[in-house]
User: What shape does this take?
Amino acid sequence: MSKYTFPIGGIHPNDAKFSKGCAIEVLPIPPVVYVSMAQHLGAPAVPCVAAGDKVKVGTVIGEPAGFISAYIHSPVSGTVKSVGPRKDLAGNNVTHVEITVEGDEWEDGIDLTPDIVKEIPSDRAAVLDKIKKCGVVGLGGATFPAHVKLNPSPDTKADCILINGAECEPYLTSDHRIMIERPEEIVIGAAIMQMVLGGCRCVIAIEDNKPEAIASMKGAVAKLGYRNMEVLTLKKKYPQGGEKQLIDAVLRRQVGSGALPISVGAVVQNVATALAVYEAVQKNRPLITNTMTITGDKLPVSEQHNYLFRIGVPFSFIAEQAGGVPEYAAKIVSGGPMMGKAIANMDATTVKGTSSLLYLSKESTKRKEEGLCIRCARCAESCPMGLEPFLINRVYKAGDLAGMEKASAQDCIECGCCQYSCPANIPLVDNIRMAKGQVMAEIKKRRSNGK
Amino acid sequence: MTGIFLWTVGILAGLGFILALVLFLIAKKFKVEEDPRIDLVEKALPGANCGGCGFAGCHAFADAAVKAPNLDNNFCPVGGNEVMKKVAEILGYEVKQQTPKVAVLKCNGSCENRPRTNEYDGVKSCRVKATLYAGDTLCPYGCLGCGDCVAACNFGAIAINPETLLPEVDESKCTACGACTRACPRGLLELRNKGPRSMRVYVACSNKDKGMFTRKACKAGCIGCGKCAKVCPHGAITVENNLAYIDYTKCKLCKKCVAECPIGAIHAVNFPVLKPKPEAPAPEAKKEAANE
Assistant: This one.
C-alpha cells in the first residue's frame, strides 16, 4: 500500500471502473460534424473558414483570440457547410463550424505511421510553438491551453512536472486505457514536456486501483530510459486528480490561495495531454482526437466502450454507435459523476476535453429531499481544501459577501466531496459555486480598481 | 431583616439614579444633531425598506432627500406621487410627477407554449440554474421558473402560476421597487409605465435566437420578423438581435402591432373588450399563413 496521498479531506466513492477492460475502439466518422469554437478555457477561437471552403483533416479552422486561447483544427476532411451559433451540451449558443464529411484526407506533413519516434527534440521554442500550433490543451478537465502552462514566466522555475494519471473520478477509464495501450507515447510526451521545462524531475502519478496501468507505465519508463523520470503509486482517494491535491500528495507542497501551481515549482499535466503533446511534436498531428468512455451504473459491460473519437462528433451519434441510450438512463453526464456536466442536449458535440458519456439511473442521481444542517461537520472533514462548506453555505444564504470571502469561498475547487458526504443532502456545492462566483467577481473588481 | 431590605432597595435605587445621570450626561455631550425633518420624511415614507429608490432603506432615503438641493434624483417608487408630494411639502421642494410603473414579465414560455425537453432536479434557485445550463426547455433566454423573483418581492406581488409555471405580477400590489428585475438572472422583468387605466402593450419575449430556433423552442417566441416595427405609426418599436422591443415612452397604445404579430408575442393587457367587428379576421388568417 502506498503512502502517497493528499493529507486533508477527500472521500472514497465506489470507483465503478466497469469499462477498464474494454479496449479502445476507433469511432466511425459521422456524415456531418460540428466543431465548437469554445473548446478550451479562455477566449473562444475565431473561425477562419467560411461556408463552401474545402478542408482536410488538420486544417486550421479556428484561430486563438487572445493569450489564453487555442487553435482549432478540422477533425475531418470535407466541405464547410456553415459557420454559426449552435447549442452546446448545456443548451447555450456557441459558434460552431459545420463540416460535411467527404473521404478522409489528411493535411500534408502529418505522420500517420504507427512508428514510435523516440528522439526528443532539443529546440524548446520550436516545440512550444508546435504545441501551440497543434491546439493542445489540458485534457484533465479544465482544458487550459498547454503552451501557456508549459511556458511559465521567467521569474518562476519549475522543478517538477507531474503527469496526472490519477483518474480519481468514478466510472472514467479512458486515461486508464491509454496508459495500458499507449504507454510509450505518453512517456515520450512527458519527456518532451520535461525538456521544455528545463529538464526537471518528472513524476507519473497513478492511483493504486489501476495496477495494470502502473505496470505498463513502469515498463515503458524502464524501456525508454529517460533521465529523472519515475512512476509513483498513489493511494486511491477522490479528488486526487485535482491539481492542488496532486501536488500535495506527491511533493507535500501547498499551493496558496489564488496562486498557480508554478508558484511552488510544479506543473501538472494529464496523461492524455502528454499523449497529445507526443502526437503534436513527434507526429505533427493536431489535437483532433481524444479518448472517451461510454459507461453507466446499470449498463452491461458488454455495452460499455472506450472510444477514440474525433472532436465535433454529436453525442447522439456516439450513443447510437454504442447501442443507443439505455432505457434506465435518467441522467446523461459528460465527464465524471462528481464534476461532470449533465447533457441537456444530445445533439451537442464532443469537444477536446470530452472524457465520457455516462448513463446514470434515477436511483443514483435523483436528489433527495434537503434536510437541516445538524453541524456534524462531515463536509468540513471531507473538504480537500480545508474549507468549512456549511459556513460558506450559511453566509451565502445570508448574502454576506465579506463573510463569503472570509470563509474562502474563492478557494473551492467544486469537487463535490461536501455534498457527497452531507447526510442532510444540502446542495452545498451549488451554493458554494454561487458564492465563489460572487467573491471572484468582487476580487476582480477590486484588482481592476487598484490598477 | 427590615434593615437589609431597606439597604438593598436604597443601594439599588441610588445606583440606578447615578447610572441614569451618567447616561443622561453622556447623551447630552455626544448628541448627534440630526435634522428633525429626516424623521418626518421617514414617517411619511412607506417604511418597507425595499431599496427600490436606490438607497439602503427608508431612513437613508429620507436623509438623502433632506440633504439634496432638490428632489429630482430622489423618488420613492413604492409610495409614488402621493408620498412624494407629502415629502415635498415637508421639505418645501417641488416634486416632478412620475408616471407610475409596474413590473412586466418579458416571457410567455408557459408549459403549453414551450415544451420541456429535460427535467431539472437541482437547487430550486434561478441563479443556480442559470449558471448550470440553458434550462429545461430549448429557449436559453426564457423564464427558469424557480421563483427567485417571488422570493425577492417584499410586497407579495409575484406568484408562480402553477399551470403556466411562469411568475405573475399582481398589479395592485406591485410597487415598482425593481427588486425582481435585479433578482432575475436573465433580466426578464422590466419596469414599464403602468399606462392609462393600466393599459399596456409589450413584447412578452426575450429570445434573441434566429426565428427558426425560436420557433422550435417556443410557440410564443418573438421571431424578429419586424412586421410590428413596420406597422407602428409612432416609431416605438425596434427590432434588434431578432427581438422586438416597444419603447413605452413612445407607444400610444394603438395596438396595430398586436394585430400584426404572427406569433402573438405582443401582449396588450387591460384593454376593454371590444365587440368583434364583422370584417376583422385578418390577423387570424395571417397567423395561419405564418404557421404554414
User: Anything to note?
Assistant: The first helix of chain A runs from residue 124 to 133. The mean pLDDT of chain A is 93. Residues 131 and 280 of chain A are 6 Å apart (CA to CA). The radius of gyration of chain A is 22 Å.
